[in-house]
Specification:
The chain has 8 helices and no strands. The chain is mainly alpha-helical.
């Protein structure tokens, strides 16, 4: 018998858009789905702590690529390396909810980097701290606030109009 997910984790991953992924596959790779958000949060946190627009500007195109494509750039670390060490399958494609979250993060990162660059340090720390917190929440608990926003705006509204 393969790995299984707790009902809570399954529900949280469903919110992120992974409802159509095979249960056994998802159970095997679920912890690794957090890696991209963890790395982004770590780098954003360092950029915020150092009030470094440079670090945030470097991270911005990574988040933008994660918005545009169904494979997050940091997922490539797992798909082309870690999975062979762990003897597991590749990560599933990132659904619209995850890409929407990365889109929000991209805009948020631009605002944070611009704040630091323009000398608005308090705004930069507030924006960067909140960005790091929201990303860390996904990386540690699978709770994705931007995915909830996406579902509220697009999923439920389609169901009501149908």
């Amino acid at each position: 018998m393969g790995k299984t997910l707790s009902a809570t984790t399954q529900r949280r991953l469903d919110v992120q858009g992974f409802a159509d992924v095979d249960q056994e596959t998802l159970a095997e790779v679920a912890p690794w789905l957090r890696m991209a958000f963890g790395l982004c949060s770590l780098i954003a946190g360092v950029g915020t702590a150092l009030a470094s627009p440079t670090i945030l500007w470097i991270l911005t195109p990574i988040a933008a690529l994660a918005t545009l494509f169904p494979v997050h750039p940091f997922d490539l670390i797992y798909n082309h390396g870690v999975r062979y060490l762990r003897n597991t399958g590749p990560l599933p494609k990132r659904p619209a909810q995850s890409r929407f979250a990365c889109g929000i993060a991209t805009v948020w990162m631009v605002a944070t980097a611009w704040s630091f660059q323009s000398g608005a340090l308090i705004a930069g720390y507030i924006l960067g701290g909140a960005l790091t917190g929201v990303g860390s929440l996904v990386a540690t608990t699978d709770i994705c606030i931007p995915s909830m926003i996406y579902n509220a705006l697009f999923i439920r509204s389609r169901a009501k109009s149908a």
